[in-house]
Amino acid sequence: MPKTPRPAFRCSECGWETTKWVGRCGECQAWGSVAEAAVAPAGRTSASPVTSPAVPIAQVSVEESAFRTSGVPELDRVLGGGLVPGAAILLAGEPGVGKSTLLLEVAAQTARYQRRTLYVTGEESASQVRLRADRTGGVHDELYLAAETDLGAVLTHIEEVRPTLLVVDSIQTIGASGIDGVPGGVTQVKEVAAALIRVAKTRNITTVIVGHVTKDGSIAGPRVLEHLVDVVLHFEGDRNSRFRMVRAMKNRFGPVDEVGCFDLAADGITAVTDPTGLFVENHHTLVPGTCVAVTMEGRRPMLAEVQALVTHSAAERPRRTTSGLDSARVAMVTAVLGQHCGVHLFSKDVFASTVGGARVLEPASDLAIAVALTSAHQGVPAPRGVVAMGEIGLAGELRRVRDLPQRLAEAARLGFQLAVVPTEPGRTGPRSPESWTVDGLRVLDVADVRGALRLLNLLADGSGPRAVADDERPGYPY
């Protein structure tokens, strides 16, 4: 006798399954999202005809999968060179961040290269998308537009238009007839994504799918959606700023964690090839509590200014407020300064932030945070034109950072004249710092954070070597 399929329970948010009902999903931790779902009986699978015979890998042609430019250089940088025919790309981001504007620009640029493009919108009407295209200059004869919410109608449009680039905005609004659930549900998203990816692979159509995000920033829908696609991109940005960043979280054709920078304006979205100036403030006078760090966003070095404010606290528990920085690392740096450098901030309110809405979460920015906090506490500005980079350990030592030559080259290109970096293996300690020059940038390496603060004249004890003498401070030669 065949076994009767046991009832299973499935989460409507992420697709997690369990044999008994629970009030909270064990995968996404959502409450009240687990409901009963029937389990299909298991069957046997027999051999079936193959679509194409297996051949040696050396005989497989790669010409059909060569990169094609999207017309947007920053997006090509993130993708590893451009759009790959047959690739499935998932672009996710918060509402209003500019996903539709970016993809409409990509579709228009692709159409200008005489490659037919199909833009399917399920969230807006065709006339609304046309208005945006008029505003951004994206009207072209090779750009086709369709407003559909049914999967069958979308597949029909693909058969008729035969595009080289397909944009679906968004997958949560497309529904498949004959499948249980509402559009945007786990079952519907899996079926729609599988159908679109299957068409993309068989017809060599580059497919870009827009995905929604949940309130915690993760991609909505089942996790299997991220496994099915070839590339996963996150579109990030602050609502109070025009600056936007596209970050690659998964890429089968190029590097991951690569970042593209864009400027979102009323007339469209444009690429920002040199975003460093957005995150560094040009102070006309020297200000205590500031320091410039060099971070790596993918393979791109970017300079970001760290600012700190230290004031007396009137509360029993002093405040620790951060913006754009990791609050845990700021707390650790504060503790290290008090224990190893005599900079006691336990009774002070500490505020630390970055300029321009930049997110500096890399441990290499620890030294810049320490310099900014000490400068704000002492009321003494750091020398002009100084960059600091290095990870701080709990013992107060400075640890090496990756891609140091690229960071120094970027700082030298932007006109900085002094860099404080961790000591390389085999070099001497802070009382006899090693110094060398990179394209006019003087580089000093130190072994610990106390030595770095002494070099910059930020400690009041007056001991140890210094990078700037007291009589040279008014001129700030750096």
UniProtKB/TrEMBL annotation:
Keywords assigned:
ATP-binding, DNA damage, DNA repair, DNA-binding, Hydrolase, Metal-binding, Nucleotide-binding, Stress response, Zinc, Zinc-finger
Residue positions annotated to bind ATP are 93-100
What SMART domains has UniProt attached to this entry?
A: AAA
> Which superkingdom is the protein from?
Bacteria
Q: Does the keyword Hydrolase apply?
A: yes
Q: Which InterPro entries match?
A: AAA+_ATPase, DNA_repair_RadA, P-loop_NTPase, RecA_ATP-bd, Ribosomal_Su5_D2-typ_SF, Ribsml_uS5_D2-typ_fold_subgr, Rubredoxin_2
UniProt region (Lon-protease-like), positions on chain:
349-478
**Pfam families with a match to the protein in the record:** AAA_25, ChlI, Zn_ribbon_LapB
The chain positions of domain RecA family profile read: 64-213
Tell me where the sequence motif RadA KNRFG motif sits in this chain.
250-254
Q: What does this protein do?
A: DNA-dependent ATPase involved in processing of recombination intermediates, plays a role in repairing DNA breaks. Stimulates the branch migration of RecA-mediated strand transfer reactions, allowing the 3' invading strand to extend heteroduplex DNA faster. Binds ssDNA in the presence of ADP but not other nucleotides, has ATPase activity that is stimulated by ssDNA and various branched DNA structures, but inhibited by SSB. Does not have RecA's homology-searching function.
**What does the similarity note say?**
Belongs to the RecA family. RadA subfamily.
> What does the entry's free-text domain comment contain?
The middle region has homology to RecA with ATPase motifs including the RadA KNRFG motif, while the C-terminus is homologous to Lon protease.
Q: What is this protein called?
A: DNA repair protein RadA
Encoding gene per record: radA
